[in-house]
């Protein structure tokens, strides 16, 4: 059982099996807990990328058409000219390193990649299937008058990024929360058999962020806190949207570590395909010392493991010492 579903920490973001999992859902004003039991069919999860690490992510598939067109146009434009270097490369005197890792991603770059994935979801959607709870025409997020074509024109990547960045900055959310947000978003689209489109993308993204922040962060952001960020939305509306979101997810908030890692590396691939490179910094003395310390720690652990293995195998014939390789960090 989960001790606290509103602000529970995902241990390596891997919960117990979702086949017979017990999860909690906030109700009322977000401070009461109700417990539900859920039995999910295994076959339905095998082809779902948000449940199965072997399935390909939806956003990466939707981006491939645009990526191929960009590569073709870049090839044609650079065919007769010598393109300049677009990346920093390490030389004999300087080494450039990317500090973003799967356990500690770069916040700004991760949010950019997640919003780009949402952009491709909207742009290359199959249809306009939606639900009333996410429709901004029925549940507007602002009292201000919006343009007439607001609900029919696909939003640009910059608009999506500004919306998500505002929420993450105001609520002080982490980069890991952004990745879990994308997992929940794709799970919603798959489970509910709906599409993310101009009229519902803000409320879908808001619901995914709301749930991901409660699952991931130790100090969860309450529903009323989001009402301070989005001035025109009510707590009752947030609570209702949260309940519907969890019901559409079939109360499956399980995010295995393998699924999280797959989404992280697919976001890295998406960034590389769209020239959204993660920031590279030159290696200085302080960072070199830190890397050396990490490498030495790993080497000592391997040596200790080798000694234990040899000690347990003294009775074996033709004993050969365990060979260890040096860890190379780049």
Automatic annotation (TrEMBL):
Alphabetized UniProt keyword annotations: Cyclin, Signal
Superkingdom of origin: Eukaryota
Cleaved signal peptide residues: 1-18
UniProt-recorded name of the protein: Cyclin-Y-like protein 1
Similarity remark: Belongs to the cyclin family. Cyclin Y subfamily.
SMART domains from the UniProt entry: CYCLIN
Domain Cyclin-like span(s) in chain numbering: 162-247
Origin species: Oncorhynchus kisutch (Coho salmon)
An example Gene Ontology molecular-function term: protein kinase binding
């Amino acid at each position: 059982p989960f001790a606290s579903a509103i602000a529970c920490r995902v241990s390596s973001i891997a919960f117990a099996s979702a086949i017979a999992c017990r999860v909690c859902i906030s109700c009322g004003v977000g401070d009461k807990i109700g417990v539900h039991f859920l039995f999910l069919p295994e076959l339905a999860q095998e082809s779902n990328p948000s449940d199965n690490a072997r399935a390909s992510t939806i956003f990466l598939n939707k981006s491939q058409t645009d990526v191929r067109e960009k590569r073709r146009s870049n090839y044609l434009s650079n065919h007769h000219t010598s393109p300049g270097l677009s990346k920093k490369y390490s030389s004999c005197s300087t080494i450039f390193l990317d500090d973003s890792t799967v356990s500690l991603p770069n916040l700004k770059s991760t949010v950019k990649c997640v919003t780009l994935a949402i952009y491709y979801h909207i742009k290359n959607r199959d249809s306009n299937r939606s639900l009333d709870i996410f429709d901004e025409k029925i549940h507007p997020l602002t009292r201000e008058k919006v343009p007439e074509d607001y609900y029919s024109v696909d939003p640009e990547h910059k608009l999506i990024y500004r919306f998500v960045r505002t929420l993450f900055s105001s609520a002080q959310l982490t980069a890991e929360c952004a990745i879990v947000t994308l997992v929940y978003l794709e799970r919603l689209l798959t489970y509910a058999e709906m599409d993310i489109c101009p009229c519902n993308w803000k409320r879908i993204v808001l619901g995914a962020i709301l749930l991901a922040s409660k699952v991931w962060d130790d100090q969860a952001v309450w529903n009323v806190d989001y009402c301070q960020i989005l001035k025109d939305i009510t707590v009752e509306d947030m609570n209702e949207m949260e309940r519907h979101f969890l019901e559409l997810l079939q109360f499956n908030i399980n995010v295995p570590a393998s699924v999280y890692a797959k989404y992280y590396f697919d976001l890295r691939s998406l960034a590389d395909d769209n020239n959204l490179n993660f920031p590279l910094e030159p290696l200085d003395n302080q960072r070199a010392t830190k890397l050396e310390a990490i490498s030495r720690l790993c080497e000592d652990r391997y040596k200790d493991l080798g000694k234990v293995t040899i000690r347990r195998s003294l009775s074996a014939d033709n004993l050969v010492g365990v060979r260890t390789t040096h860890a190379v960090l780049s």
